[in-house]
Design goal:
Layout: H1 2-16, H2 24-35, H3 37-45, H4 55-83, H5 86-99, H6 101-110, H7 114-129, H8 138-141, H9 151-157, E1 165-168, E2 172-175, H10 176-187, H11 190-194, H12 199-214, H13 220-225, H14 231-243
Antiparallel strand pairs: 1-2
Helix pairs in contact: 1-10, 1-12, 2-3, 2-14, 4-12, 6-7, 9-10
Length: 244
């Protein structure tokens, strides 16, 4: 019984900490918005139609995530970025990204994208050998393409709809399809199987990944929400635009 409980806790923490509150694609949108204040003001006031029947619940979770990011994750990442050189932080990011290449390969196959599966396989092979277990990224320097295919896109490929908008604790904006996609991503994550009986260690690893990733995007979340009338709506809009 205890093992099952620990496994559930680990599963939740693994996929919740697998990405930061604002995902990379959304961060890019934030930078573009900040660059042009007039465009951002228009974008902030425009409410994009979203299936959000759980808005009351989502706002509670959003507030929790917002405080966690501003009060815990961002300050920790600032200290971490000053203590750990960029070269080492990049190596950590590369290592964990390389671990997910087999999952990307599987999703490419499931979606019938065999050419992309070939690219992913070669990247994984090169980075795992010449790149020393993925710590370095010679595949990118060699011009090899990246294909970040995940289970959410596989579900979409087979006709699964988005479902209602959903804000997940720790993770942030998503939807029902994205939630089940995250479960699939977690189950194909080698860290899950390596630490499935050590939930505390798993939480530490995933928390460390989140801090490491945030150290490359310091201040972006605050810039995204600067001057917005309703941060919840702003984040929801950015999420929908990034998913189109």
């Amino acid at each position: 019984m205890i093992k099952r409980f620990c496994l559930v806790v680990f599963l939740l923490c693994t996929f919740c900490w697998s990405v930061t509150l604002v995902r990379p694609g959304m961060t890019i949108a934030a930078d573009s918005a900040v660059a042009d204040e007039d465009d951002f003001a228009e974008y902030d006031n425009k409410i994009i139609p979203v299936n959000d029947p759980l808005e009351s619940f989502n706002r509670v979770i959003f507030t929790f995530n917002d405080r966690l990011h501003i009060w815990v994750l961002e300050p920790t990442a600032k200290v971490y970025s000053k203590a750990v050189p960029s070269l080492f932080r990049t190596g950590i990011r590369n290592f964990f990204s390389n671990l997910m290449e087999p999952a990307r390969f599987l999703n490419c196959l499931l979606q019938g994208r065999f050419s992309e599966a070939h690219d992913v396989f070669l990247r994984f092979l090169l980075n795992s050998t010449a790149g020393v277990l993925g710590i370095m990224d010679p595949a990118t320097y060699d011009g090899m393409k990246t294909h970040d295919r995940r289970f959410a896109s596989t579900l979409s490929n087979y006709g699964a709809g988005r479902g209602p908008y959903l804000v997940l604790p720790f993770f942030g904006p998503s939807d029902i399809r994205g939630f089940f996609g995250l479960v699939g991503d977690t189950l194909t994550n080698p860290v899950f199987w390596t630490l499935r009986d050590e939930p505390l260690a798993a939480v530490a690893v995933q928390g460390g990944k989140a801090v490491n990733r945030t150290s490359f995007h310091l201040g972006e979340y605050q810039r995204l929400l600067s001057g917005t009338l309703d941060p919840y709506i702003a984040i929801r809009n950015v999420y929908r635009q990034s998913e189109q």
